[in-house]
Amino acid sequence: MKVVVLFGLLGAVLGGMSLDDIRSGFKRLDMNNDGTVRTNEVTEFFNRIDTNGDGFATLEEFKAYLPADVPQAKLQGSFKFYDKTDGEDDNKVSREVASKVFDNLDLNDDREIPFEEFMQTYPLMKAAIAKEILALSA
């Protein structure tokens, strides 16, 4: 059953995200609702997860930030993706990951991510997360 759920999740991500899914991801990062994500907003998003303010997000902080109904495999796979993004697989995500995520989403390197640009890059990041979820379940 777990494999069926995971393949369904991977199919949903790789098969194309809905516009509502992309819009929801964008709204989480566009803190001031001006239609453009900037570096300070991604940093603020990270700071909301890092509740103890030590510059690192732990799995426990990550779990506390997400809705309670997020499946465990999705939670752990997502966290593992961000943990690896900081260059160290050490069970904590450094603040620098916020900058790296921003850079990956900023297609034209102009330090701003309008929704149209986010629509192109966000599904790619979600696909990489889905691969991490599958790897943990294998």
From TrEMBL:
Pfam family, one: EF-hand_5
Alphabetic keyword roster: Signal
Family annotation (Gene3D superfamilies): EF-hand (1.10.238.10)
SUPFAM superfamilies, sorted: EF-hand (SSF47473)
Domain of life, source organism: Eukaryota
Classification via InterPro entries: EF-hand-dom_pair, EF_hand_dom
Signal peptide boundaries: 1-15
An example molecular function term from Gene Ontology annotations: calcium ion binding
EF-hand domain ranges (all copies): 37-72, 93-128
Presence of keyword Signal: yes
Xref: PROSITE patterns: EF_HAND_2
Protein name: EF-hand domain-containing protein
